[in-house]
Each structure stands twice: as C-alpha cells, then as structure tokens.
Design goal:
The chain has 329 residues and is mainly α. It is built from 13 helices and no strands. The relative contact order is 0.24.
Length: 329
Amino acid sequence: MSASVAASPSDATVVPPAGTSTTRVPWQAKYLLLALIWGSSFLLMKVGLRTMAPLQISGLRIFAGTATLLALLALTGGRLPRERRVWGHLAVSGVFLTALPFSLFAAGEVRVSSALAGIGNATTPLAAVFFALIFLPSDRLSPRKLAAVVIGFLGVVVIMQPWESMGRPDLLGFGMTLVAGACYGLGWTYNRRFLGGADLGGLSMPTALLLVGSALMVPVLLVWWLVSRDTYAAPWSGHVDVGGGGVLLPLLCVVALGVVGTGLAYMLQFDVVRGAGATVSTTVTYLIPVVSVLLGVVVLDEHLAWPQLLGAAIVLVSAVTIGLPAKRR
C-alpha cells in the first residue's frame, strides 16, 4: 500500500538513500516475492495459533522483526532518529502500525480463517481515505474516491452477511481484522501529517517503529500473563496443540513472520522502489489478499462461501480504484 495512502507495516513504502546499489535480480521477481511473503503472513499466524496465544504471536513477531532491522541498520550504517518530537510521533504511529494491528490480526484469526483475515487487510485504503479527511485537510476527496469508499463498505457488508443467522463469518473475529486494517490506514496517515518532513530515510523509520512496538509489547505481555497465569506458566509458555502437533513448527512460523515478513522484506522493497518506482511498488498490496486466500484454501483446506468471494472482489476493486493516480489536465 502506498505510504501516501495507507500501508501495513510490511507494506510501508520507504525510499532508500540515493546512490545505493541494487542487485542484478529483476525487480519483477522481488515484487512477486514480496506479495508471497506478505500474503503468507496470515497463514503463518494461523499455524502459530496452534500453540501460542495471539499476544504471544504479535510480541514475538515484533521482537524478531526489531532484532532483524537493528542488525540491518547497523550493517548499512544507518542511524535512528534523535529528535524527541520525532520519537513522540513515532510512539503514536507505532501503536497503530505494529502492536495493535499485529495483535488484532492474530486475535481475529482465532475466530476466522487466514483467508478471511487477509481479505480484512484489503480494507486499509478505504480507512485511509476517511482518516485523511481528518488529518490531511488539504487532501480533497474526489467523487471517484468517495464512490470507491462507499462501494468498498458495501463489499464488507456482503462479506459479513448480517442478514444471515447461520453460515456467515464470525462477526467479532472479522471485525478485529477490519479494525486492524483501519489501524494501518490511521497510522500511515498520521505519519504523513506529523512525520512527512522528518529525516527518516532508509531503515531508520521502520526500525524506530518496531522499537516502539517492542517497548509497548513488554508491559502488554506482562499484564496478559498476570491475567492468564492459570493457563500459561510464563509469558513465553505455549499451550498444547489440540491437533497433536509439536511446538517447533508454530514457533518457526512466527519467527519467520518477524524476520522475513517484517525485516528482510524491507530490503526487497527498497530494490523494487529503485527499479520500478514507489507507485509501482505499492501495488503489491492488491496481491496480498489473493495470496492469503490461495494459501488458506490450498495449505489449510479453508473454505470461503460465495458471498465472501464476491465481497472480497468488491473490496479489492474499490482499493485499486482509490490507488489510481488522479487525472491531469
């Protein structure tokens, strides 16, 4: 998703420093790899839930991603921001770009499929248009965007099927994924408003965001554990897999979610930006729900009814419409 519109943490558009060299791998290959990495995050969370609680998944994901980006920042000679004002705004945007959406997506997948959670992520551009009206008064809401938002909302209604008493998705679970997607829209709009002129090039911004997220997750995990001590012996203790599997696979999936999906994916995105430009790189967002649905159906044997597929198509068309460049005279 475009940083000028909306993005998830793994979708953030970060412009690399000028003069940075690129590899010989075509940007098209990296583009497709990014769609696979970010689209598979919902599958990895679903597997992690077999032995881990949602907050444990989001915490481990943020900690692993923070460690990865800190190492990459040191290797590339980057630095973290130093101004207190910048860190103050990062503390706010970090809530909506790391801790809260990561936790909500994991909690939502307790009640809905990974495929449906990926569809919920596609509503981020719709939420970004709404929050832009609040934080960015200079951004005008064109008739096209207004129509896209209304149609996208109708697509969400089709997915939820409130007129049905049976066979519809769990409204609370899917609602969590919608709020998580809205968090991304709010977080990146807030960044545009208050951090647009800050010197946060390269890996500085995502590393700082994840550091804030890590700091937030420590007290959250401790409070959660104090409430759940009857089930979990320690904050890092898992529960028994009712399916009979071990703890190693879920643990590896969540670590991969942090290291690859949050850390290494940024390096790939930098090369896509260099090779094709920021506008092209942000369109990878529209492939993420497609990948999440395919992986959920093929790997986890999940099923989506026709209203969910129809609603997902409506939401995706609306998101693409919002992302189209404005016509120039």
